[in-house]
Design a protein that fits this description.
Number of domains: 2
Number of strands: 16
Order of helices and strands: HHEEHEEEEHEEEEEEEEHEEH
Low-confidence stretches: 20-32
Structural class: alpha+beta
CATH topology of the largest domain: Chondroitinase Ac, Chain A, domain 3
Shape: elongated
Length: about 325
């Protein structure tokens, strides 16, 4: 049982070590937006130091590797939110009649401005961003210290939610700007064109921006700096792969050595026990051999207990 217990501990240690190495090899930026939303939800809720209903709180801190992203949050009562809406909520104008599903007593509206990280977390092939990606998400306000909360669904019943993109970048001549919305899975849906006044409309929560089609241009040779950068990234990727492979092989070799040592220790203990038994047999008293019929049998010269008749014992 001790051997099996030791083997289980060794396998557990090895698996945890490999999982840690694999996690360290993953890139910081994920192609999926859900982990980003969960992280920004945590930092948005931290702005509620002394929360008051209906007050907009700007998040003062964001992760160091996401510097530039702007966050804000507002706690509301679901009934008041449906009757009055919120106008303005940063660039968003939320009318009355918005339904929250599933129903909660209080909710938190979270605002995101991804700034220069827009193209990283929401890449669009064939399009260029002329405005940052803005996020409007809703969460249950029951526990303001909770993390990894599921998103609530916002659905308009009358007028749509409007997003004001007044500070657009210069749109190339001949290009037409379009509104784009990303759902919780990161899938994009486009409008035909942007509304007058550089506004977009939506009936749900999500992430929104304004894009134009990329201008086709002849490919130019990559400068030496880009080649070096690509070569450097390729070598870093190869080195990470070799680190993982080497860790796996090294772990298996280490496990084999440990198993070998355990087996050797068990065999050594068995052999040592046999030697002790042999030494005990050699140092014991030698018995005289006596012929009994056709068989030789050991006999003792004396006995420890003298024979006694049963009649004598009874007397």
């Amino acid at each position: 049982m001790g051997f099996l217990r030791c083997l289980q501990l060794l396998l557990l240690f090895l698996s945890l070590r490999l999982q840690k190495l694999s996690a360290q090899s993953l890139p910081n930026a994920s192609s999926s937006s859900s982990p980003l939303d969960a992280l920004l939800q945590d930092y948005s809720f931290r702005a509620f130091v002394r929360p008051r209903t209906g007050i907009l709180y700007e998040a003062s801190t964001v992760p160091s590797n996401l510097t530039g992203i702007k966050l804000a949050a507002m706690r509301l009562r679901s009934g008041s939110f449906r009757r009055r809406g919120v106008t303005p909520f940063k660039e968003f104008s939320i009318p009355s009649g918005v339904i929250v599903k599933p129903y909660v007593t209080r909710l938190v509206l979270v605002y995101q401005n991804l700034a220069n990280f827009s193209h990283l977390y929401y890449p669009l092939s064939g399009y260029d961003y002329v405005a940052p990606v803005l996020g409007l998400l809703a969460y249950d306000a029951k526990n303001l210290s909770a993390v990894n909360l599921p998103q609530l669904d916002l659905r308009v019943s009358n007028d749509p939610i409007r997003i004001d993109f007044s500070d657009l970048e210069r749109i190339p001549q001949g290009s037409s700007a379009k509104c784009v919305r990303f759902d919780s899975k990161g899938e994009a849906s486009f409008s035909e064109s942007i509304q007058p006044g550089n506004t977009c409309e939506t009936e749900h929560q999500g992430h929104f921006s304004v894009v134009v089609k990329s201008v086709a241009s002849a490919p130019s040779p990559a400068p030496p700096g880009d080649r070096k950068e690509k070569k450097k990234k390729s070598s870093e990727s190869n080195s990470k792969t070799w680190i993982i492979v080497g860790s796996v092989v090294g772990g298996l070799i280490l496990l084999g050595l440990l198993l070998f040592l355990v087996l050797r220790c068990r065999n050594y203990k068995k052999q040592e026990k046999l030697r002790e038994m042999e030494r005990a047999g050699e140092t014991g008293e030698a018995l005289r051999m006596t012929q009994v019929g056709e068989t030789r049998a050991p006999t003792a010269t004396t006995t420890r207990t003298q024979p006694m008749l049963e009649t004598e014992y009874a007397a």
